[in-house]
Amino acid sequence: MDLKLGNLTISPPLVLAPMVGVGHSALRTIIMELGGVGLLSTEMLGARKLPHSNPLYDPFLIKGDMEHPLSYQMLVANPEDVAPAMDALHRLGADAVDLNLGCPAPTVRRTGAGSKLAEDSDLVRQVVAAARRATTLPLSAKIRLGPELSEEKLRAFCLMLEGEGLDYLTVHGRLQKEPFVRRARWEWIAKVKEWLTIPVIANGGIFSVEDAKRCLEISGADGLMIGRAAPATPWLFAEIAHAIYGGPALAVIDRPAIYRRFVAILEERFPPGRHLGRLKEFSHYFSKNYPFGHHLAMAIQRSESVAGAMEVAEAFFARHDRGAGLAG
Ligand SMILES: Cc1cc2nc3c(=O)[nH]c(=O)nc-3n(C[C@H](O)[C@H](O)[C@H](O)COP(=O)(O)O)c2cc1C
């Protein structure tokens, strides 16, 4: 079940998705503490900026000791930016490197990166080849299914990526422009799995143990990547690891304690100006745990300080989390 990639073992094969604004050190740490995750990911990091960033101050590079293994996601548009960025990732102690070939955000596309880069297969080939030459670390790419459904194009693209030496491929089962509300096409991930010999990680729409089982069944993938469910239910990795991969059961899920821990790590590691925005992002997802969670999310959005947000949160928890935590 484990994924062995050179010196790196992903065990269990459950990966935290790269998520800008969400997948920073505080979220990564609480997920690691809850267990069940095999590989963490950074937020996407611009290749041009990486060689000049200071890991002590750059909030995208701040990390704690337990955040391993950690895959760094590179957002890149030009092959010549790859080697200097890779040098920086080596200095930062990356355990693996992922190339962003799927981001559809207009701000990213305007720079020629993400899904825009993926439209130029030849340029992608050069980027992947440059990355492969520049590192012996496990190298992956994260793709969507493309601009339109085409087995022929997707197959050629995936085989090209494999041919350039990727160690594994993550497939987000949606087309470039498809919104998150649309069901992910796990059956298309199955096609990719059949075409390739390298491991394939399935991504998109996994919010429960049931989803995880169904996705594995339909896609035949070698592992799963989880995005939005991670800030909503950071214990989901542990639950899936237990249900599918024989990991230990979680005794108790103490939601207020997890929320407080998240805030404590924010305050400990990030500069003060970076706390509230990150807390608001996290709360947007975390509040989905509660039947009237939108009240919590809205009140946090209106808060002008972390102390104010915590007051609101504690009052909410006192009403909704009385007594012990939920059974795992
Ligand atoms: C807030 C947010 C930020 C994201 N940032 C990135 C990113 O930096 N790099 C990337 O490849 N994908 C990014 N994604 C996409 C996720 O990695 C993932 O592919 C997507 O959310 C689908 O998985 P899910 O259904 O489990 O959330 C982001 C998604 C969200 C919701």
Short overview:
The protein is an alpha/beta fold. Helix content is 44%, strand content 15%. The model has no long low-confidence stretch (mean pLDDT 96).
Describe the model:
This protein folds into 2 domains: 243 residues, Aldolase class I (TIM Barrel); 76 residues. The model has no long low-confidence stretch (mean pLDDT 96). An 8-stranded parallel sheet has the order 3-10-9-8-7-6-5-4. The protein has a two-stranded antiparallel sheet with strand order 1-2. The chain has a two-stranded antiparallel sheet with strand order 11-12. It contains 14 helices and 12 strands. The chain starts with a strand and ends with a strand. The longest helix is centred in the C-terminal third of the chain and has 15 residues. Strand 1 and strand 2 form a beta hairpin. It is an alpha/beta fold and 328 residues long. The structure holds flavin mononucleotide.
Draw up the topology in text.
Blueprint: E1 3-5, E2 8-10, E3 14-16, H1 25-34, E4 40-46, E5 70-75, H2 82-92, E6 96-100, H3 106-109, H4 115-118, H5 121-134, E7 139-143, H6 151-163, E8 168-172, H7 186-195, E9 200-203, H8 209-219, E10 223-226, H9 229-232, H10 236-245, E11 252-253, H11 255-269, H12 275-286, H13 293-302, H14 306-320, E12 326-327
Parallel strand pairs: 3-10, 4-5, 5-6, 6-7, 7-8, 8-9, 9-10
Antiparallel strand pairs: 1-2, 11-12
Bound molecules: flavin mononucleotide.
